[in-house]
Amino acid sequence: MIRLATIGTSTITEKFADAVAQTPGIRIDVVFSRDAARGRAFADRLGIDGVSTDLEALLASGEVDAVYVGSPNGAHAAQAEAAIAAGVHVFLEKPATPTADEFAHLVEAAQARGVVVFEGMRNAYDPGMTRLRALLPQVGTVRLVSFGQSQRSARYDLVLAGETPNIFDPALAGGALFDLGVYPLSAAIELFGAPRAVVGATATIATGADGAGAAVLSYDGFVVQIAFSKIGASRRPNEIQGELGTIEIDEITAPRRITLDLFSGVHEEIEIDGPDNNMRFEVARFAQLVRGDDEASADQRRSLDVLRAVEAIRAGAEQLPAPRPQ
Question: What is the Cα–Cα distance from 233 to 50, expressed in whole angstroms?
Fold first, then answer.
C-alpha cells in the first residue's frame, strides 16, 4: 500500500483525494497544512485521521511513502525538493514547476535518490486521448490543429474588485497559461511530440498575471494553434485537420465525444466512456511508477517539453510592447 500525504487544502486537492479513493493500492494517510484548524477540517471532510503542520518532520517520519503537492505553483519546487531529499516520492499538481530548469533539477535529484517525481496532467492519461491517437492515421497527413481551454474563473470577480487571489498572483506563478494553457499544450505534445518552435502572446490583467493568451506551435509540415483563458469562455471545438479529413474533439482535458469526418464520406461519432473525475488515471499511473512497474522518463520528458513551450510563450509575451492592464 502506498501511503500518501497531501500538501494543500484546495478544491483540486479534494478532487485528487477522490481519485485516490477510487484507485487500489494507494491511500491518503496525512493532510499537511500550515494552519492546523484548516488541515483538521479538510482531513475530517475526507475521512482522514492524520494532520501535520510540520512538513520537515512529516517527511522524516517514515509514515508516508509519497506526497501530493497541491500548493500554489510557486511553492512546488521547494516542497518537492524537500520530499525528494527525504526519500519520498512526489506527485506534483500541474504545472509541475514554474520553469523547465526547476523540473529538470527535480528529475535529476529524484533519480539520484531513487524516487519518482511525477506531474499530474490528467488529459495525458485519459482514455479519450488514447482513442484520439488511434484515430490520427485516418485523417492522413496532419496540417492544422486547433486546441484550446477557456473557462472563466469565479475568482476573476475578486480581481475586478481589486483583490489578488492566488490563481491570479504572478508572484505565485498564477495565471491562465499555467492553470489552463498547459492542457492544450500537453495534448499537442502528447500527440505530436515537442514542437520545432513556439511563439505566443498573453493578455495581462490588473494583477500582472496573464488572463488569456494564444500560441502557435510549429512542426514539420503543420502547425498547432493554442488558445486559453480564465477570464472568458469558448464554445469552439478542438480540431485536427488532415489531408483526408477532420477530427473534432469536445473537451481537450477529458475527450468524451470525438467526431471523425473524412472526405471519402465517412462520418463517425465516437462516445468515450470515462468517469466524472479523470484524475484517477494519473493517480493510477503514479502508483504504477512508484511500485516500479514502469519507468517515468517519457512522462517527465513530456512535462519538460510542455514547460519549455510555456517559457517560450512567456518570453514572446515579454518581448511585445508593455500592455496596459485592463
Answer: 39
pLDDT-above-70 percentage for the chain:
97
Cα distances from 46 to residues 213, 275, 283, in angstroms, run 36, 20, 17
Residues 249 and 239: their CA atoms lie apart, in Å, by 6
CATH code of domain 124-279+309-319: 3.30.360.10
Cβ atoms of 31 and 7 within 8 Å: the answer is no
Q: What beta strand segments (E) does the chain contain?
A: 2-7, 26-32, 50-52, 66-69, 89-93, 117-120, 142-150, 197-204, 210-219, 222-229, 238-242, 245-249, 257-262, 267-271
Contact 148, 187 (CB under 8 A): no
Q: Compute the chain's Rg from CA coordinates.
A: 20
pLDDT of residue 321: 52
Query: How far is the first Cα of the chain from the last one, in angstroms, to the nearest whole number?
Result: 50
What pLDDT does 118 receive? 99
Give, as one character, the DSSP assignment of residue 179.
Answer: I
Q: What is the 3-state secondary structure (H, E, C) of 4-70?
A: EEEECCCHHHHHHHHHHHCCCCEEEEEEECCCHHHHHHHHHHHCCCEEECCHHHHHHCCCCCEEEEC
C-alpha distances in Å from residue 163, one per residue of 11, 81, 274, 298:
20, 31, 37, 40
Q: Which cell numbers hold the place of 22?
A: 477510487
- CATH topology for 2-119? Rossmann fold (3.40.50)
pLDDT at residue 316, as a whole number: 74
Q: What values do phi and psi take at 283, rounded to 5? A: -65, -45
Give the contacts of 186 (CB within 8 A, at least 6 positions apart). 94, 121, 123, 124, 302, 306
Of the CA atoms within 13 Å of residue 269, those in its CB half-sphere come to 2
Contacts of 165 (CB under 8 A, 6+ apart): 155, 158, 159, 174
Residue extent(s) of CATH 3.30.360.10 domains in the chain: 124-279+309-319
- What pTM did the predictor assign? 0.93
